[in-house]
Amino acid sequence: MNTMTAIWKTEPKQGFEIKDAQIPKIKDDEVLIKVKATSICGTDLHIYNWDAWSASRIGKNLPYIFGHEVSGEVVEVGKDAKGVSIGDHVSAETHIACNYCYQCRTGNSHICENVEILGVDRNGTFAEYLSLPARNAWVNDKSIPHHIATAQEPLGNAVHTVFNGEIAAKTVAIFGMGPIGVCGVRLCKLAGAEKVIAVDMNETRLKFAKDFGADVIINGSAEGVDVRKEIMDATNGAGADVFLEMAGSPGAMQDGLATLRPGGRASILGVFSKPFEIDVTNDIVFKGIQLNGVNGRKMFDSWYKSKSFLPKMNLEKLVTHKFKLTEIEKGFDVLLNHDGMKVVLEP
Predict the structure, then answer these.
(1) What pLDDT, in 10s, does the model give residues 275-304?
(2) CB within 10 Å: which end of the chain, N or C, has fewer?
């Protein structure tokens, strides 16, 4: 049999199509992975909804298979592939770098000038099989269940964002309590943060944040709650030392910058659907803050750090739903209705 079931983005509108695809034929430097688990990310929600970001970033790639968080088993290895063997359990570093541009040659391959992103620029993981350059395959300990191993890619995002600067003894405000934000809470506490303030609009997600170590939780949708006042009160009027934006929300960005202390650090991971205004003069220039954009994981430093933290992260608790790959609509419904955290699909 040469075909497989896959989830396609075929038209520039909300939704997807389930249809067969050819099982990939690998190149000499690639591996073929039988997908055992793949999970839905916030980026996949952008693509599913087909917002302004998706239209501008992905429109030229249609039709294609999306999805990028994965764990699976290597079933074929190209003749030039190194470091990976048939039978290995692997996850994917989703930024496929060229290895020859200025960024790659100066240790910044995560922002490669010619990057191809799995599930964005090339066929992704919402399928029964996946081809991947061997250099992008991260070999997992086989004791890690596939439904947990698939969450390492978003954990790596949290690792990159949290450790983009100093954390120990700092007060950290994290906006956005999806799986990455909740992982961020746990990482900050493990790294010795003095206080972690978790902000979201959903009470269920804030409960997860509390369980993962948040000292203060703020529900921005609750009646009478002023997020900026709550943060300033929690920091005795000083503001947070560190602001981590993991929501992709203009309001979160504005509130986070407004409540960051002078000289503080802001690390921005969230993907925003469209441009918006921020008060650059008062919240950035006059405060003298450090403002960092965070793109994916720092290859492969973030993976080694994630591996170290993984036994202490309790990711099992974040996997709230499992569905068959063909039941992906249920997974999107869960996340769009804010009824769960990490949704795993199993072909």
Answers:
(1) 999 999 999 999 999 999 999 899 999 999
(2) N
